[in-house]
Amino acid sequence: MITVLTILVGLAMLATLGVLLAGILGMAGGSGDSRRSNLLMRWRIGLQFIALALFAILLLLLKQ
Q1: Transmembrane residues, as ranges (predicted)?
Q2: Angle at 24 between CA 20 and CA 28, to 5 degrees
Q3: Which residues contact 40 (CB under 8 A, 6 or more apart)?
Q4: Is 41 or 64 the better-scoring residue by pLDDT?
């Protein structure tokens, strides 16, 4: 269970990083599509929440 949670935390962190980089590259490219930027921001926030929640669960399991 702990191994699966560790892998899920890592995947959630990598997904968050990917969305963050996509947003940064979109802004740097000067495309100026505010809807896409807003969507990427929402995805990043959601993925960060998932990563933190999984991390908290993992820490609770490791504490026992």
Answers
A1: 46-62
A2: 170
A3: 19, 22, 23, 26
A4: 41
- What pLDDT, on the 0 to 100 scale, is given for residue 47? 96
Neighbours of 40 (CB within 10 A): 19
Would you state the pLDDT for residue 57? 95
Query: What integer is the mean pLDDT of 2-7?
Result: 94
User: Helices in 1-64 by DSSP H: which ranges?
Assistant: 2-29, 34-63
Distance, in Å, from the CA atom of 34 to the CA atom of 1, rounded to the nearest integer, reads 40
Distance of CA 32 to the CA centre of its chain: 23
pTM: 0.84
Decide: residue 64, CB within 10 A, 0-12 exposed, 13-18 middle, 19+ buried.
exposed
